[in-house]
Amino acid sequence: MGSLRPKRWVEISVEADRDCVDDLVNLLAKHCVGGAVVEERPDEPGRAGRITVKGFLFAQDKQTRQRLEVALLLLSRVSPISEPRITLLEPEDWAESWKAFFPPQHIGNHTVIVPTWHEYTPQPHEVVIRLDPGMAFGTGLHASTRLCLVAIERLLQPGMNVLDVGTGSGILAIAAALQGAKRVQALDIDPVAVQVARENVELNGVGAVVRVERGTLGAGPPPEIPRHTESGYDLLLVNILAEVIIDMAPAIAKALRPGGIYVGSGIISERADDVAEALREAGLPVDERQQEEDWVALIGHKA
Questions:
Q1: Distances (CA, A) of 224 to 137, 214, 227, 235, 246
Q2: What is the pTM of this model?
Q3: Which ranges constitute the DSSP H helices of 18-100?
């Protein structure tokens, strides 16, 4: 019997100013497998204010690669982004490319994110999330994810019913489960992210609490994506992009119980007012605005 050969990947890497990262992430997420990866490395000489955004494609998918290169060229005419750097990755190169940018992370008062390839001895007060990001976005390195994790530490009450929209690697769903949530429903439109999140859920021993499914809220994505219609959630986490949260605001309101809390992150600061207005119009007043660097998390409740 023949064996399956491991897939080879193409990495598309683009540098951008902070104010156009939102558009670049959205573009790469549209074309690439597993979404986009954002790397902030401000200590490198000559890189002040610049952020690297990466996406990954199967090497044999030349048609999608050509469409993406054309789209990046058009974006470069209106936004300060670099020419894309294309790198062919062997399977072992792909695995190592994650490890280089994913050290253990201490976030908030007691959350620690530890990649599976690191040894770590936790302190008694720490909540340790073991994570293998695989082909899914959400390692804890990005400011938008950190803002959500800090919010979970503060807002989550034992016994809460939680919805995590755009779960990526499953990091937020796992954090909620480890800190006392009674039930967590995690959704993502990307089947690769769903697979990765399920593996991370089992790795952290919270499979009895967290359920990961392909799906989303609202009617924005293609009709073949399942729509989640369950309501009555105590806490809703959505760490995606500003324009997605704007479109999803009415569905967020339907999913929450009266008085239920939402945390909306992945919002570049220039779009925060637009997102806040859409949430208010949907009956979701904003109670707090938390910011790290140029990224904003809006926290509020269902009126």
A1: 22, 10, 9, 26, 21
A2: 0.72
A3: 21-31, 62-76, 91-99
